[in-house]
From TrEMBL:
Keywords: Flavoprotein, FMN, Oxidoreductase. It comes from the Bacteria. PANTHER family: 2-HYDROXYACID OXIDASE 1, S -2-HYDROXY-ACID OXIDASE-RELATED. One of its GO terms (biological process) is aerobic respiration. This is Alpha-hydroxy-acid oxidizing protein. One of its GO terms (cellular component) is plasma membrane. It holds the Pfam family FMN_dh. The active site is at 276 (proton acceptor).
Amino acid sequence: MKSVLTIAEMKERARRRVPKMFFDYADSGAWTESTYRANEDDFAKIKLRQRVLVDMTGRTLESTMIGQKVSMPVALSPTGLTGMQHADGEMLAAQAAEEFGVPFTLSTMSICSIEDVASVTKKPFWFQLYVMKDREFVENLINRAKAAKCSALVLTLDLQILGQRHKDLRNGLSAPPKFTPKHIWQMATRPFWCLEMLQTQRRTFRNIAGHAKNVSDLSSLSAWTAEQFDPQLSWKDVAWIKEKWGGPLILKGVLDTEDARAAADTGADAIIVSNHGGRQLDGARSSISMLPRIVDAVGDKIEVHLDGGIRSGQDVLKAVALGAKGTYIGRPFLYGLGAGGKAGVTRTLEILQREMDITMALCGKKNISQINRDIIDA
Ligand code: FNR
């Protein structure tokens, strides 16, 4: 993995190793993918100030997110179906993150369960919650996350209904999934991926199967999932979840200043400025372009985090400079996982760390608390 120097190279390795339908699932956005592209492109438009003759010794990237220590301000985003990039993907990514000292967030829609991940990690991880119509199921999930000692609940707000991704529809990645000779061929041409998958028995959504009513096989599971997202979700539900959970709460998927103020009023610990990686509302603004306005709107009332489009350590620093206390990576860690399992995720984190450290030094700063709008050439 050491020969991989950039996230773009990691992506190409993953493309060669993961069957097309699952690679496309990670590498897709809603409709025209304009928001997906903007997330990345808008980072490139932000220019940094080069500084010289500043003492650059004794640098550190250590910081905190919701008061929890992190070796750098980067967490792993919750991503559904992670275990299809690599067998046992959620467990491997959680271990890589734990060893690196950054938070791992397990999605409700994971292949491996909360209990699977807890069984292979020593430190607490974070759990992402989708609020399903079946509130008994939701309460049960919250209790399972508590029992596993998860140290934060990430509540996703921007998926009351499912966005539409053309690549997934064309690839038959729908509910229920369609398997055609084309898919079997796609898998047959990725023998290492297939061998790994054959060695594991975890190919169902294990947070759901066996826990939700009348869900036994892949077909009933897909049908259940498709109709369970709640179009009536409201701020009252957020208050209900906050009370049931009782621990650190992060609200994910805020992209509007009015929503940000409402989120801050809930008393949650943080919001994530996010458009779901461009997978929901195509045509929405990029996360990084909305960040300064949202930071200004909420002031010190709540910690502000950001995800969407981070592809280098420079992007992380730009987000921190514009007011994000922490950032998250979705696709970059999925590419690492697809390319090389746990070692690939570790390499992804190393790449970001190295890029961040060099950039911070060349901007004349020594630690994360010194990073502010001063490093941006506005
Ligand atoms: C996601 N995302 C997501 N979010 C969430 O809250 N729950 C989930 O289950 C998923 N599933 C998911 C699957 C895949 C394949 C991707 C790419 C994304 C969104 C994710 O948490 C995050 O917001 C974005 O991935 C961030 O953008 P980047 O880093 O991928 O550009």
